[in-house]
Write a structure and sequence with these properties.
Length: 150
């Protein structure tokens, strides 16, 4: 099979695998992956600017704002203008939001334990290395700069 056709199959398979993972994650953990990434970032960072959250969670600012508004209505986060820089809006977990995260963390751990069954540590390392190479190649192909090494 020509390399170009192999590449197309890999990319299609990767996309399908990601969609299945997102659905399974949401089902098992109870949160859609984009929302969970925001919750986890706030759990790990505490108060965080929306700009930093967008970068960290790899979400466009408009999508992040919609997610934050929904979570604010649920009472999970609070948002306020940064006292040192009124151009920035900071978000923080509320006690209710922290309880949501605390409830989901063990479910997340169990999900990943189950998801990685049958893979050795070396397999996971290899997969991460290959995915990093693909990401760098995609960035270059799009005319973007490669991301900093993790």
């Amino acid at each position: 099979m020509p390399k170009q056709q192999q590449g197309l199959q890999v990319i299609q398979h990767m996309g399908q695998t990601y969609r299945v993972m997102q659905s399974a994650f949401s089902s098992k953990v109870g949160h859609a992956l984009p929302r969970w990434r925001i919750l986890l970032a706030l759990h790990e960072c505490g108060k965080c600017s929306q700009k930093h959250l967008a970068e960290r969670c790899r979400l466009d600012p408009a999508s992040l704002t919609r997610q934050l508004q929904a979570m604010q209505k649920l009472g999970w986060i609070s948002r306020a203008v940064d006292p040192q820089d009124n151009r920035l809006t900071n978000a923080t977990l509320t006690p209710a939001g922290q309880a949501v995260v605390n409830d989901a963390l063990p479910k997340r751990a169990a999900f990943f334990d189950e998801s990685l069954k049958g893979l050795s540590a070396a397999d996971v390392d290899t997969l991460n290395r290959v995915l990093s190479v693909l990401e760098e190649n995609f960035l270059r192909a799009a005319g973007g700069k490669p991301a900093a090494a993790p």
